[in-house]
Prior knowledge:
The protein has 141 residues and is an all-beta fold. The chain is built from one helix and nine strands. Strands 1, 2, 3, 5, 6, 7 and 8 form a seven-stranded mixed beta sheet that branches.
Amino acid sequence: MKIKRITKTNFRRYGWVIEYPDKNKKSEKHNLFRIVLKESASRGWRIAYLIVRDKTIRRLEHHPHSFESFEPIRGKSLLFVSAENLPKKIECFLLDRPIILKKKIWHGIVAQGKEAEVKLTENAEVKCVTLPLGFPLGNMV
């Protein structure tokens, strides 16, 4: 499986890249603020800190009612994703940019190297659905 770099275009099916569009065209004299995602439902949210040490995974998970951000802090990790209706068509991305996963996107993460650290943001209460793969996914470097 090929490891892809995350771009707005190739990741669109799964979610969004957290960034400020056209930041170089804006005045460099003022702060820039942009809401990246706004949920209409008031479910509350939580921020988590994940230390990724797994080198392989044998399952994916998704959250039917929650978006989820993955924001790399330290180290390198791989993010495996698949659309809700195609759980066996898995793509692999180097998690080198902060992203938001859409609801119901199958996902799993592994470390490249000893460990990686990732900040997560999601609803305060999260239903987690798991999908056993029957084969391992892991570090390809």
